[in-house]
Structures are given as C-alpha cells and as structure tokens.
Amino acid sequence: MPRRLFVLVGFVVLVTVPVLFVLAGLSQAQEDTPQITHGPISGEITDSSVVLWARGNISGTLTFDVSETDDFADAVSVTTDVELANDFTGEALVEDLEPAQTYFYRVSLDDSDPVEGQFTTAPAPDEAAPFDFVFGACLGGQGYCRNPETGWDIFEVMANQEPDFFLLTGDTIYSSGACPVPANVPGAEEPAQNLEQFRSRYKYHLEDETYAGFLAQTPVYVGWDDHEMRDNYSGPELALQNPQRLADGRQAFFEYWPVQTSDVATDTYHLYRQFSYGAQADFFILDTRSYRDPIVNWDPSPVTFQPKTMLGAEQFAWLQQGLVESEATWKFVVSSVPLSYPTGFPQPQVEGRDSWANFTDKSGYETELLALLFFIESQDIDNVVFLTGDTHWPFAISYDPDRDGEPNFYEFASSPLSAIVLPPAPNLDPTLNPTVLYAEGEFQGDLFNFGQISVAEDGALTFNVIDRAGAERFSQTITPK
Hints:
Layout: H1 2-32, E1 36-43, E2 50-56, E3 60-67, E4 76-82, E5 89-94, E6 102-109, E7 115-120, E8 131-136, H2 154-160, E9 165-168, H3 195-206, H4 209-217, E10 220-222, H5 235-241, H6 243-255, E11 262-263, E12 268-269, E13 273-277, E14 281-285, H7 313-325, E15 330-334, H8 348-351, H9 366-378, E16 384-388, E17 395-399, E18 409-413, E19 434-439, E20 449-455, E21 461-467, E22 472-478
Helix pairs in contact: 2-4, 3-6, 5-6
C-alpha cells in the first residue's frame, strides 16, 4: 500500500507540474493584457463639463470617448496616463459640453475592450429646470459588507429612481473595520493600515457589480467623513498622531474618486467645493474633517474662550461668501455630520462630541454653527437645507431658532446605505429649537436607506426616504420662500 501510494502521488506530480507552469503562464499573460478593472465613473458634472474616472491593470493610456449618441459616431476623446504610482487609476476633465444633454461615454486602456457608461449634464445656469437626486452615507460598515448573492442591492433600487445624480456624503468605506469571509465576499478581510490596504478597500467596494453598475450610469459628487481615515478623527490631530495614515487615506480617496480639487504630487487636498444645478440649486459640500479641532476640546475653550472650529477660518469664509452670493432657489449645505443629534460613539462624555451639537457635554462645535446661522439670518438668506448623514438612522428636522412659529431652515438625513442601523437618539440639542418631523431606526435593524430629493419647476422640494426594498418610509414637501 505505501508503494502504490508513492507511485500514485508521483504520477500526479509529474502530470500537474507542467500544467501549473502552463496555467501560470496564462495568468501572467492575462495580467499583462491591458484591461479596465474598475469603473467607469462620472462625477463633478456641471452644465458644460464632467470628470471621468477608471482604473486599469497596467501602465498605459486611458482613452475616454464622449458622444451624444451610443454609436460614438461624433465622439470627443480625452486621454490620461496611468502607472503603478497611482495604482493605475486615472481621471480626465471633459469640457465644452452642452447643458442638460445626455452623453454616452466609454473608456479603454491602450487597445483593451472599452467599458461604457452615461451621464447627463446640469441645466444651464439660468434654467429653472426640475430635477431629482439621491443621497446617502455609510457603506460597508460594522460587517455589513458585500452580499455574495445579491451585492449591494440598494443601488438597484436607487437606479430605478432614475436620479440625475448621486450625492455620497461620507463614510464611503470603513477603513478601520473588516469584511470577513466566508460570510462576505473575499477582499477586505483586514482593517486598512497602509496605502495598499486603503486602495484594496476601494477596489473591494467597486467590485460589487450592482454598485459599480449604478456609478457607471449615475454621476456622483462625493465627500468624506471619518471612516475613510479613522473613527471620529480631526485632521490636525491625526496629522500629529499618525501622519502616514492620514496621507495614505487621503491619497487613496482621491485616487479612487473623480474629484478634481486635489494634487497628489504636491500633497495638496481640497475637498470642500460648490456646484450648481441650473437656477434651482447651489450645493456647498463641506469638509468637516480636515480642519476641525479635536473633538475632546470644549466649546468654547475654558482657557482661551475661543470657539472650536469644524470648518477652519478659510472654509467658513468661503461658505459665507458662497451663500450670500447664491441666487439659486435652494441652498444645500452638505455636512457629513448632523446638526442637533449629539454623536460620539460609544462614550461621548469621555471622547467628545463628533457632530455640531454641544448638548450637555460642551464638546461639540455649536458656537461655530451658531455664527453661521446668525450670518444666514442677518443676510436674509432663505431656503437653506442641510443634508447630513452619519447617525445610522434617517430623519427630517425643521428648525425655528427665532421661535416665530415658522421654520427658518431644514435638515434632511439619510444613513446607512449598508452598515449597522441604530435607534434614533432620544434627545436632541434644544439650542436651535428643532422639531423632529421623522426619525426611524432600531438597533441592528434592517433599515438600509437613501434619501431622494425632487425639485419641481415651480421650486417645490420633496424629500423622500426610501429603503432597500423600494418602500417609501417618509415624504415631506416644502415650498420656497
């Protein structure tokens, strides 16, 4: 018996060794053949431009073709080189497009087969056209990772709404957590600790076919919150504690999203920005992480009596100027963290408040928020809506800080897309006189959700919360002043 076993094993080895060399050769040939591995994605659309993104597998030239017809007969081409230094990712700004026009686009790496998508540009600046968009936050957190059978099916429900664009407000990945096997799809088994692992997490997300398909067909504007780097972090504080983690997390984020306001070569990152959607809306996407004071600090400081800042002086002044100059019907201020729900998990009384609200712990960023709201009121800026996330439950709040019986502004929030669901906090910071119009959730429930906002031609705004089964959980219509 031992002798027969030896012969059998030896026979297998003699047969399989050449086969393994052949398979290795085929695998190497496939790796060396140019192909698009992730994307395409369109983003940062205006009435005349778009940023297109994709990733290849080897160094080469990405060619983006853009056309008004799906046969690409009149295509305009833009190219960009990719290499190992940027993980073979690349983006291109395409300009001189027509307003409110649907375009088809495709991208190839050298002579590879192209992959395709589409987008529609924003209306002309003086056009009060109706539009709708979807927004959300918190994807792939607390083990709620890609489903091996259905993928992130919430994006199929989103696609069925046929939105003009998608606003991803933060926590686009959860770098500090893992997505273990066999319960989930392989690819993100360990928390990200270095640049390659940060990159791998973005690739893991984009390899979900449902998610990737949605992004190929729907333009995206993206912001970040904390989990792209580290839970509840402050930029200046993390720069002192772990500068390499901050640099790696930032680099991977800007490599894997179509965002133009950055320069990896000079280590310059600028995420807060404004975009307009016709005459109906201006959007102000805030960066609530890069410039904030540590969350453990009191507001104001008991020593210097200076208020804490979440935005930093430059961003705060930019926001003020943008709001006062806006002639749009609606002014959407996109904050990754909520206004009145006091967050900071799991021990806010020890670790500090991560959101704007001070509540009872005096460690939020409320003084700066009050200064912003006083400016809005003093400048007679109407129709301000804050879009937020982070809480892991959806909600709608109206605010009447002057207590005259009429709402001064609103906050609409959606979270999570796929992460732990929490019950709404029982108490809000009362400073701004909030009225909860809607809040829903339960501990470890299944209310994955996204927000949908429709703006009619007459300016009426409707906010809906839709769950991943496609059911409408809440709807509220408000009219502009």
